[in-house]
Every structure is written in C-alpha cells, then in structure tokens.
Design a protein that fits this description.
53% of the residues lie in helices and 12% in strands. The protein is an alpha/beta fold. The strands form two sheets. Strands 5-12-11-6-10-7-9-8 form an eight-stranded mixed β-sheet, sandwiched between helices. The chain has a four-stranded antiparallel β-sheet with strand order 2-3-1-4.
Length: 564
C-alpha cells in the first residue's frame, strides 16, 4: 500500500511539473525565440575566424631494428617535450621574423595525440591562407631550431678530436720520414753502422707504435661520438601539411541561436519552478481530490461588497451570490443518506476569509426557507458581529458563566429571515477548554434539535486547537482555502490534524478563486439588466411570531416552537 501511495505521489509530482510547463509554455517559448534571435543577430555581426591544422611526427633518431622500441619510446617523450616548448617566445619570434608579420601564441594550439609520436598543431586567424601559412612555417622553424640545438651539442667534441687526430697524423708522418732516412743510412754496405743510429731507429719505432695506438683510440672515440650524434638526433616530419580552410569555425549564428534558445528556455523554466515553489499556493481545484481526497464544494471569486460582506443579501442577483447558492447545493448533496445539520467552517491559516464564507453560506441556506443558526466560535479574533453589524456585548462566552442552560439574550436576529446568530461575546482566557467542555456539547445538542442547519465559525486549524476540539462533534467540516495566500504545506497539515481527530471533511471552498463567468452559467449582465423581479427562493419578509420571540426568549421559545 505504501509503495502504491509513493508511486501515485511520484506520478502526481510529474503531472504537476507537466502542468506547470504547459501553463507557462507560451512564456518559455517566447523567451527562447527572443534569446535565439538576439544571439543569431549578434553572432552574425562578429568577424569570421578560420582554422588550419597540420600533423607532425617526432622521430627518436635510432634507425636500427634492435633499437626500434627505444626509438619509439624516445619519440613519444620528445613529442611531449616539444608540445610544451613549441610555443616559447623565441620560436614565435622566429616565425614572425620568417613571415614578416606579428604572430601571437594565443592563436596557436599544440596538442600531443595521447601515447604517440604525433603532434596536432591548430592555428586560427581572420585569413584562412595566413592561418595555413603560420602552421607550416611554425613546423619548419621549430625543426630547424631543434636541428641546430642537437648539432651544437657534439660540434665541440668532434672538433677537438679532429684536431688531435690531425696532430697525431703529423707526428706519425714525421717519424715515418725519419725512419726512412735511417733505414737508407743503415743499409749502406760500405759504411759500418753507427750504434747511435741503431738506438735512434729503435726509439723512433717505439714512438711510432705509440702514436699509431693513440690515433686508433682517438679515431674510435670520434666514430663513437658521430654514432651517438646520429642515434640521438631527433627529426620532425610534417605528415599532413596545413591547407587553407574557407569555412569559418566561428561565428556560427545558427548554433549560437539554438544554444541561446535552449539556455533561455531552461532559465525561464527554472525561474517558473522557483516562483511556483516559493508561492506554493493551491490554485488548481483538481489538486484537492488528487492530493488529499477532498472534493471542492465551491469557488468564490473576490467580489466587490459595496460596504457589505454578505453579498448574498446585498446583491442576491450577482454571479458571486450564485456561487454561494451553488455551494449550498453541493453541501446539500454531499451526504444523501444522513443530511448534514452541523457544519464547522475553518481554514488552515488566518485571513483565508472563512468568516465571510460562513456568513454568506448561512444566509443562502436561510434564504432557502431553512432555519439556520450561525455561531461565532472564534473566541480569539471574532468577526461575525462586525459582518452582521450587531452588538457583541453578549455571546457564546457568556453562556458558560451562566448558572442555567438558557440562551436568553444570546441568540440575535440577522438581516435575513430564518437566520439567527450567536456572536462570540467577551473573549475568555481559555477558549479551547470552553469549546471542549460538557456545557458546550449540551448547548450544541440543544440547538441541533431546534434548527435545520447549524454553522459554526471556528479559528484556523494550524493556529490554535479550538477547531479540532469541535471538529469531531460536527457532521462535517468545510475547509476554506485562499488561493492567493494559503500554502500547500498549510493545507496538508490542516487536513492531517482534522483526520487525527476523526473529523469528516466535507470539502473545500476556494476563496479568491480565479473563476470564469461560464461557471455561473450566465453572464453578469443576465443578473443586472432584467427589470422584472425574479424569484430566487427568497423567503417572505414577514417572519413568524415564534421566531421573532426567539431573539428575546432564547431556548425556551425554541423549545415551545419545536413542541408545537
């Protein structure tokens, strides 16, 4: 059961959101169209920006099959490094110098394709040809700088080794010539060899051997450095040169218009939901039966009373008076098997207009030739004596301090035949205790037997407990809700409190409702233009003698009339 209630609640929430969107769809659509049009117009005025792209690959420098993995790994690391160094100011200045115009680093984007030796270079410019030229020139200039930097690291070492090799070669050549001369001298048969020449020859041969060994080492070092230079030198290869793209990347008026329209619609929708959430008034009559299972008995619009709050008596032909007669009919048919005789009228919050509703409802019921007594049980802020313009010197509170149960002087005559009124009287310090007392129940039982309808105006449910004290004793409770003031949370808590005391909520009356004339079945002119008198079920102006005496004699006369 709880799951069904949760699903129903979720569905109702979704439907509520849908109703809000549909209600304000015209505003959302209007703002979306305006935002889209403005965005399209402004975007269309912006200068066109073009984009050119080029793709380059970084090689690690190793060309042997054994070192292919090392070369690839080195290329990936170098690509990451070059991505960060390609837009340094010396490179940008060199590109500007090469092209002959100023190039800004902000118009160039360099990104490495993840885990690869590839680098994407993107250039934006107001001229498509210039964008492509900048991209291609950047690759050329950067590759040249990298080549020069790598070459400069080995030049000094190679030059030193070349110098040493040249010096060694000169020494070897010199010793070789000396040995050649000694060999000629020593080979003469007619001259006895000089021991000194033999010693010199031996020494020169030793020196020549050492020089040749040194040269071999120097040459090996030279070759090693040359090989290292070849293996460590990276190369930048332009795989996909940049070409001019004549389609601008921005502005895109249509895309901007669509995006602005969507954003505008979302902002307005959010604002509508926010305002609806903050207001939280119950304005849709369908919410009551769907949310709380309570029918709507009537909808009363804000009417012009012309100095009298009882419009059913001062303007009986008005559409507003007809709305109260419709409320009377709905109340009559709300319970067919056991007719309702005692009705408590209350509201969730103050200033919902419950007293005005009670006064007009009692009036139209009395106009339907029924004996009605209206009791002001709001012993904190009473208002019925002001609405009917009668004295409040004696009233309901005075009944509790009397030694007898007689109502002499408490029941007052109203401006409508067959309608009697008991005002609040002096305000007591303990209203809840009095309304829940045994004497109050006895008075209600006494009056219920002697009238056709008893209507009690009580304080708001959420303010004090007075209404809940009486609610369970009544045949039914009418909840008055101001559509412009009462919050959903207030209605929810009021209904919960009334259900806790097992009160029978007959229905809701929407006060200050935004109603249409069609709800009254006729236009306003129908009620105001006819010259001949129309019978609306008004009672005769002359009141029976028994009821007139009722005002002075109270319960004794009521008992006499009832027994007769």
């Amino acid at each position: 059961m709880e799951n069904e209630l949760e699903e129903r609640s979720s569905l109702e929430s979704i439907l509520e959101y849908a109703r809000i969107i549909l209600r304000w769809a015209w505003l959302i659509l209007l703002v979306a169209l305006i935002a889209g049009f403005i965005s399209y117009f402004l975007a269309n005025q912006q200068p066109r920006v073009y984009q050119a792209k080029t793709l380059v690959m970084v090689s690690g420098g190793s060309s042997s099959a054994v070192d292919s993995y090392t070369s690839s790994y080195l290329g990936i690391q170098l690509a990451s490094t070059y991505t960060r160094t390609m837009l340094t100011q010396p490179v940008i200045d060199a590109v500007s110098s090469e092209l002959g115009f100023k190039v800004n680093a902000g118009q160039i984007t360099v990104t490495q394709i993840e885990n690869s030796q590839l680098i994407n270079i993107t250039v934006t410019d107001l001229d498509p040809n210039r964008a492509a030229l900048i991209a291609n020139t950047l690759v050329t200039v950067f590759a040249d700088q990298i080549q020069k930097e790598q070459t400069s690291r080995y030049t000094e070492l190679l030059q030193g080794l070349e110098s040493e090799l040249a010096a060694t070669d000169a020494q070897i050549q010199e010793i070789t010539l000396k040995l050649a001369d000694l060999e000629v001298t020593l080979s003469n048969e007619f001259v006895e060899p000089d021991p000194q020449d033999l010693a010199n020859q031996s020494q020169l041969e030793v020196n020549l051997s050492q020089l040749r060994s040194s040269r071999s080492y120097l040459y090996s070092s030279y070759q090693s450095i040359k090989l290292a230079e070849a293996q460590s030198t990276s190369t930048i290869i332009q795989k996909d040169p940049a070409v001019p793209n004549l389609s601008p990347i921005q502005p895109q008026p249509m895309r901007s218009a669509m995006l602005s329209a969507v954003v505008g619609a979302m902002l307005v929708a959010g604002l509508v939901f926010l305002v609806t959430l903050l207001q939280d008034q119950v304005r849709d009559p369908d919410e009551f039966p769907k949310r709380w299972g309570i029918p709507v008995l009537g909808q009363i619009s804000k009417f012009n009373s012309n100095g009298s709050a009882i419009i059913t008596q001062s303007q009986p032909r008005s559409p507003d008076a007809e709305a109260f007669r419709a409320l009377r009919t709905n109340l009559k048919f709300s319970k067919i098997d056991t007719p309702i005789k005692t009705v408590l009228i209350t509201s969730p919050s103050p200033a919902d207009g419950k007293s005005t509703i009670a006064a007009n409802l009692a009036t139209v019921i009395a106009q339907n030739e029924q004996d009605v007594i209206l009791i002001d049980a709001d012993l904190r802020r009473p208002s019925l004596h002001k609405i009917f313009k009668v004295s409040n010197r004696l009233g309901l509170s005075d009944y509790f301090i009397r030694s007898t149960e007689k109502l002499s002087g408490l029941v007052k005559k109203a401006n409508t035949d067959r309608l009697r009124l008991i005002t609040s009287g002096n305000l007591p310090p303990n209203p809840s205790e009095l309304l829940g007392s045994k004497k109050m129940i006895e008075m209600l039982n006494l009056l219920e037997k002697r009238v056709d309808m008893m209507i009690i105006d009580s304080p708001p449910v959420l303010v004090v407990t007075d209404a809940t004290v009486l609610a369970s004793r009544m045949d039914g409770v009418i909840l008055v809700v101001d559509t412009k003031k009462t919050k959903r949370s207030a209605v929810k808590h009021a209904v919960e409190q009334l259900h806790q005391v097992n009160a029978h909520i007959i229905g809701v009356v929407l006060n200050n409702a935004k109603t249409k004339r069609s709800q009254y079945y006729h236009s306003r002119n129908y009620y105001t233009k006819p010259k001949e008198k129309i019978d609306h079920g008004q009672p005769a102006p002359v009141e029976p003698a028994e009821l007139v005496a009722d005002v002075d004699n109270g319960a004794e006369t009521l008992e006499k009339r009832n027994s007769g």
